[in-house]
Amino acid sequence: MFAVVLTFGGVSVPTSYCKADELTAVTPQQKEYFTLWNQCEALTALQDYVTDVTNPNSPNYIKEEDRIATFDMDGTFIGELYPSYFEYNMLEYRALDDSAYHAPEDVMETAQEIRDFVRNGKKLPAHFDMKHAYAAAKAYSGMTLAEFDAYVKAYAQKPANGFTGMTYGESFYKPMLEVFDYLRDNGFTYYVISGSDRFICRTLVESIGIPANRVIGMDVKLHSTGQNTVEGVNYTMGKEEDLVRTDELIIKNLKTNKVLQISQEIGKVPVLSFGNSSGDCAMHNYCMGNKAYKTATFMLVADDDARDHADLAEGARREAKWREAGYHVISMKNDFKTIYGNGVVKTDFQWGDE
Q1: What CA–CA distance (Å, rounded) separates 55 from 74?
Q2: Would you say 53 and 147 are in contact if contact means Cβ atoms under 8 Å apart?
Q3: Residue 93, class by beta-carbon neighbours within 10 Å (0-12 exposed, 13-18 middle, 19+ buried)?
Q4: Which pairing describes strands 272-275 and 68-71: parallel, antiparallel, or unpaired?
């Protein structure tokens, strides 16, 4: 007799004890995946699509090695924590609240703009995504990858502002984690394609079992600790050295940059794509332009202001736009039985010491 442990959305759940000779393999057709979803148009579309393209007798059959799915991260399967992103929140903390760090003036200015946006409703400057990217590159420059990973993990343990019962690092949309399980068991390989820092994304998704080599995001140039300003082609790293972050931004992974990175790093056109914002449209359109296989694209809309912080007018505008573009729409309000899981409650934002 021994315990069987099944994993749903990264959470291990022990079943009843049974004899080894009583165990039989559970196929994707027998397993119940979507326990946290209401039956809805988007879920039906996903299940119908997967059933079709994994059926060897279907004219739309896709070979397993070509079943590539791409997922945006913030606002798609992890909380966007309205009105700011995790990496924005962390930069604000780094520059304005971390007593161990003395931020340069331009980094301080960028962090203050985030704070004024979040707390006072001031508009962010035009092209702020790039301004943030340059400031973030500078703010963490000199950290080894291990030090940066530890810093992200420490910040992720802070309580998520605007909620009780949840840290930043726990703020996954639980129904979307079931999508990962479903696709994995049906032979799909999924990648995270985010505008956020690649190494932040790697740290956050580690807890749900997504390997580091399937994460693509904003990138800064790395150096070895002994390299200084010597180009890598002219320097041989020693075995005692570490890799450190620099302040040199390589790419902000948004819009068409997502497509370029998918092509360069994956080498195949996706057949499934999931996102939540205009920064994901190019990735979706690239998927829909796949000339070899049937495709499907999904946009999640933040339209639940009871269980999450949401701009309902913006959500409605986005839903109309996404439907017109031919994307399937996932409604957080109507399609999810839960968002963050039991015990998580939306509250007012609390400013001051976090």
Answers
A1: 32
A2: no
A3: middle
A4: parallel
| pLDDT for 191 | 98
Cβ neighbors of 33 (< 8 A, separation 6 or more) are 178, 181, 182, 185
CA separation for the pair 352, 348 (Å, rounded): 13
pLDDT (tens digit per residue) in 183-225:
999 999 999 999 999 999 999 999 999 999 999 999 999 999 9
Share of the chain above pLDDT 70, in %: 90
List 345's β-bridge partners, or say none: 164
Span of 17-21, 255-259, 292-296 with lowest mean pLDDT = 17-21
What secondary structure letter does DSSP report for 162?
T
Rounded CA gap, 124 and 111, in Å?
11
Helix (H, G, I), strand (E, B) or coil at 289: coil
Q: Yes or no: say if 272 and 47 are a contact pair by the CB < 8 Å rule.
A: no
| 151 contacts: CB under 8 Å, gap ≥ 6 | 140, 143
**3-state SS, residue 108:** helix
Confidence at residue 143, expressed as pLDDT on a 0 to 100 scale: 98
Residue 168, classed as helix, strand or coil, is helix
